[in-house]
């Protein structure tokens, strides 16, 4: 009898929340003429497509390596019998955690993201606040990416067309024009960036799937750094400080020749 490929892994704990249908890593998007297939591999051998947006080239999906560029392992936080290590929420020690629904995507705390050994493949870097600012400026200047008259309304252009459509999620979404969940997600993703709202981890508990959250390597203080969020009920790209101990996703961007 064939094994049930949808069977949940018994990893010592149970989460009552809904499990989604597995989403492929290479999420289809628009702007297909600017997709670069199999653009780069990470040190673990994972292959990534890339998307050209203006002068920038981004990975089209989120990083999922468990090692730094030099091959050294990123420490893995492990839960045992539903309990977490005391240092899982750490401002100084690097860790990665499984994304709890699929166990394939990696979430990273800020110390892992900023480690000089580097998470992204050679020739690529974790997107900085300046990279995100430049993306926001570029998209805001092009009316094909802007919803309405406000040049800040670019979240739909970055968000996957496969944004969740569960009934309870629909109740969460503000039915305001130009937000990610407004009308239909089929109007999302004009850029092909394909941001998707995976769960985040705060070092003790997994948070709900209501936004896509990314770290930058740019610190603000001992405990905070710049993070980027695309909310399901928002129209803008939110670039704000957050706690370094949180576990978010990473997007890599290709370095221009001679840049670091």
Structural notes for this entry:
- There is one protein chain.
- By secondary structure, the chain is α+β, with helices and mostly antiparallel strands.
- It has one domain.
- The chain has helices spanning 110-114, 129-140, 155-158, 167-172; strands at residues 35-41, 47-53, 56-59, 96-98, 106-109, 124-126, 211-219, 224-231, 238-243, 247-248, 252-254.
- A three-stranded antiparallel beta sheet has the order 1-2-3, with helices on one face. It has a three-stranded antiparallel beta sheet with strand order 4-5-10.
- Strand 7 (211-219) and strand 8 (224-231) form a beta hairpin.
- It is globular and about 45 Å long.
List the helices and strands and how they pair.
Blueprint: E1 35-41, E2 47-53, E3 56-59, E4 96-98, E5 106-109, H1 110-114, E6 124-126, H2 129-140, H3 155-158, H4 167-172, E7 211-219, E8 224-231, E9 238-243, E10 247-248, E11 252-254
Antiparallel strand pairs: 1-2, 2-3, 4-5, 5-10, 6-11, 7-8, 8-9
SSE series:
EEEEEHEHHHEEEEE
Helix residue percentage: 10-25%
Largest sheet: 3 strands, antiparallel
Number of strands: 11
Summarize the structure.
The chain is α+β, with helices and mostly antiparallel strands and 260 residues long. The chain has helices spanning 110-114, 129-140, 155-158, 167-172; strands spanning 35-41, 47-53, 56-59, 96-98, 106-109, 124-126, 211-219, 224-231, 238-243, 247-248, 252-254. The strands form 4 sheets. The chain has a 3-stranded antiparallel beta sheet with strand order 1-2-3, with helices on one face.
């Amino acid at each position: 009898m064939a094994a049930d490929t949808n069977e949940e892994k018994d990893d010592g704990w149970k989460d009552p929340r809904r499990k989604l249908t597995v989403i492929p890593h290479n999420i289809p998007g628009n702007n297909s003429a600017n997709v670069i297939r199999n653009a780069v591999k990470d040190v673990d051998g994972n292959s990534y497509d890339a998307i050209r947006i203006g002068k920038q080239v981004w990975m089209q999906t989120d990083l999922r390596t468990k090692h730094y560029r030099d091959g050294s392992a990123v420490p893995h936080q492990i839960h045992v019998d539903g309990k977490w290590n005391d240092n899982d929420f750490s401002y100084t020690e690097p860790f990665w955690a499984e994304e709890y629904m699929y166990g394939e995507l990696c979430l990273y705390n800020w110390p892992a993201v900023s480690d000089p050994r580097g998470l992204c493949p050679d020739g690529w870097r974790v997107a900085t606040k300046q990279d995100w600012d430049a993306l926001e400026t570029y998209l805001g200047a092009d009316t094909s990416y802007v919803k309405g008259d406000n040049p800040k309304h670019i979240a739909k252009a970055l968000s996957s067309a496969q944004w969740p459509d569960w009934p309870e999620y629909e109740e969460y979404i503000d039915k305001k024009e130009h937000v990610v969940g407004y009308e239909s997600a089929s109007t999302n993703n004009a850029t092909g960036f394909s941001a998707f709202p995976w769960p985040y981890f705060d070092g003790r508990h997994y948070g709900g799937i209501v936004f896509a959250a990314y770290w930058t390597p740019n610190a603000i203080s001992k405990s905070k750094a710049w993070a980027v969020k695309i909310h399901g009920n928002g129209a803008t790209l939110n670039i704000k400080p957050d706690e370094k101990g949180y576990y978010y996703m990473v997007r890599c961007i290709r370095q221009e020749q001679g840049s670091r």
